[in-house]
Design brief:
The structure is a single chain. This protein is mainly beta and about 160 residues long. The chain has one helix at about 1-15; strands spanning about 55-65, 65-75, 85-90, 95-105, 115, 115-120, 125-130, 140-150, 155-160. The protein contains 1 helix and 9 strands. β8 and β9 (about 155-160) form a beta hairpin. The longest helix has 15 residues, at about 1-15.
Length: about 160
Amino acid sequence: MKTCFCISVIAFLAVITGCEKKPTTPPSNETAPSTTPTAAKPTPTAAPSAGHGGAVIELGNATIGSFSVRASRDQGEIKPGGDAPIDVWLTGTDKVVAVRFWIGTQDAKGSVKAKADIEDPKEPNHWHTHTEVPNPLPPASKLWVEIETGGGQKTAASFDLKT
């Protein structure tokens, strides 16, 4: 009984201490956020000014399937066994079913794929999660972003971690 209570308290604390969502203001060269995750809009070019842990490292842009994708991570060491806060912005017209991130190799061997969530309903093209860093970290590891569309098609591309 005492163990059950302790587990309940720990689970409650884990839920209420999740990511702190900070309000963001789009740079003046961006259009207003769309109301659906699949609406097309210009790819944002300005880097976010701060992430969950302070400064942000812009990881670049890529095309994944029919989407233009921009990725960033919070500044800090990519430490084996730790985690990395990752943000991705998608621009495309296909329906998005899931967005997954992992750090490591393309085959994800030794990595954990993390399913991202929309960071703020007012910005449905902004996806975020904390991605586990594998231990050991394979040489030449990258951030991998996989987008699953409504048709069940999964497409992925990588970004240099800029460590």
